[in-house]
Specification:
alpha/beta; 8-stranded mixed beta sheet; single chain; D-Amino Acid Oxidase, Chain A, domain 2; 11 helices; globular; binds flavin-adenine dinucleotide; FAD/NAD(P)-binding domain; disordered N terminus
Length: 424
């Protein structure tokens, strides 16, 4: 299997990278870390110290940074991208994600972004039969380009320092304790580091872990389409299961300003067995739903990225270090939902670091407490979701969805929201 297929190829614009030099957002309250340009414009390493350093300004990093900055903790967030940046995603926010963003004080700002409303989710089978559930309150579709920039702006407004266009390549350790992070143009010290840098985190090495594989990894490809048909109404999010997408599904989401997010999602071991490239699987999915795409045209490129699935049996904390969001592998294996998990583990990491700084530091008891909260809220339900994912693969492969008893069980599970980790 080629490299491209084992680890879905990164989206050039997804996570940014490198860039022309550090871009520093300062707030009036923030102490000056360092200059990022030297004499003659030569780039100098951005150097400094903060009580907490967060690596990654996605949903997990921003949630952690927001909690810390609002508590008055000196926090710096570093990201290799320059914002606004896009992130390869289906852009779907479950109603619990919307509620979590509201709890973070972002309800009004979120409502001002271009969005679509999801009032119903449908699991669609190859014979066109479906099982549905209604959302009340609704879920939303919001482009990550907009959502992540909103989080980033709020982070800076709350008083965090943000260093952009600056990659971290390793964590710095002393006497078995993480004490900072470094990159080609970055050298930073902190009492606690939150690794929130997504798939393939720099924090994994400090925990003796490697990138996830097999059933702890999924791959996904997505593209935007204008003019997709919505014959059953434009507030229905379709999750289409078929044997061509083992341990996964294809999605067609309601359009934001006329443009729909469409994609395929598969567990990595299932993907390997297909022997096909992700973009071919996406093209095949569109062909099987040709009626919906008769008048559609693609907007932009097809993009793909990897999803680290929960519950990955690795530590999520070490002396001086907490892992949050995709960095820790918290994505719901059945649905591929990861934004809520990123926000929630980011919040928990922020609270843990905040409390550690108010007490005796990030000691073993605080780290255990973080692990336990992540496990209770996300690890345990993920385990159940992984079992449902196994069962769904059998239902689809053997076409058991045609049996009334199976259909009844699916309807019961779906409507009781047994298939959703983030619920409201
Ligand atoms: C195709 C696809 C579709 C998806 N659809 C959905 C969906 O519809 N709904 C949903 O809830 N979830 C979805 N997910 C999952 C969701 O996108 C992730 O779970 C979520 O983005 C995780 O947030 P995060 O903050 O942990 O990481 P990320 O969003 O990946 O953010 C990590 C940040 O860290 C930065 N970074 C990375 N490496 C470094 C480094 N070395 N140095 C400095 N900065 C670095 C990146 O630039 C980025 O800004 C999807 C994922 C994929 C791939």
């Amino acid at each position: 299997m080629s490299e491209e297929r084992t680890h879905a190829p990164p989206l050039p614009t997804a996570s940014g990278g490198g860039g022309a030099g550090a871009v520093l957002d300062r707030t009036p309250a923030a102490a000056s870390p360092t200059a990022n340009e030297g004499p003659g414009g030569a780039q100098q390493p951005t150097r400094g110290h903060s009580t907490v350093l967060v690596v990654g300004a996605g949903p997990a990093g921003c949630a952690a940074g927001l909690v810390l900055a609002r508590a008055g903790v000196d926090v710096c967030v570093v990201d290799r991208a320059t914002f606004p940046r896009d992130k390869t995603c289906g852009d779907a926010l479950s109603n619990e994600t919307v509620a979590t963003l509201g709890r973070l004080g972002l309800a009004d700002a979120l409502a001002s972004l271009p969005h679509a409303i999801v009032r119903r989710a449908a699991a669609v089978f190859p014979d066109s039969s479906e099982v549905t559930r209604d959302y009340d309150p609704p879920g939303w579709i919001v482009r990550r380009l907009h959502l992540d920039d909103l989080l980033r702006r709020e982070l800076v407004r709350a008083g965090a320092r943000l260093v952009q266009a600056t990659a971290v390549t390793s964590l710095t350790a002393r006497d078995g304790q993480v004490v900072g992070a470094a990159g080609p143009a970055f050298e930073w010290h902190a009492d606690v580091v939150v690794a929130a840098d997504g798939y393939g985190s720099v924090g994994l090495a400090a925990l003796g872990a490697t990138k996830p594989q097999g059933r702890f990894l999924a791959v996904s490809a997505t593209a935007y389409y204008r003019g997709v048909g919505f014959p059953r109404g434009d507030t229905i999010a379709d999750h289409c299961f078929d044997a061509e997408l083992p341990y996964g599904y294809g999605w067609i989401f309601p359009a934001v300003e006329g443009v729909s997010n469409v994609g395929v999602y598969l567990r990595a071991d299932g993907y390997r067995r297909t022997g096909r490239a992700l973009r071919d699987l996406l093209a095949g999915f569109l062909e099987r739903h040709a009626d919906r795409f008769a008048h559609a045209e693609q907007v932009g490129t097809t993009r793909s990225w990897s999803l680290p699935l929960g519950p990955r049996p690795i530590a999520h904390a070490a002396p001086g270090l907490l892992l949050a969001g995709d960095a820790g592998g918290f994505v719901d294996p059945l649905s591929g939902e990861g934004i809520w998990q990123a926000l929630r583990t980011g919040e928990l990491a922020g609270e843990t670091a905040r409390d550690a700084m108010r007490g005796s530091g990030l000691d073993a008891a605080m780290r255990r407490s973080y692990e336990r909260r992540c496990h209770d809220e996300i690890g345990k339900p993920s385990r159940a979701k992984a079992l449902v994912q196994q069962a769904m693969a059998i239902v689809v492969r053997r076409r058991l969805y045609r049996l009334p008893a199976v259909r009844a069980a699916l309807t019961w599970g779906y409507r009781r929201r047994a298939f959703e980790m983030s619920k409201s």
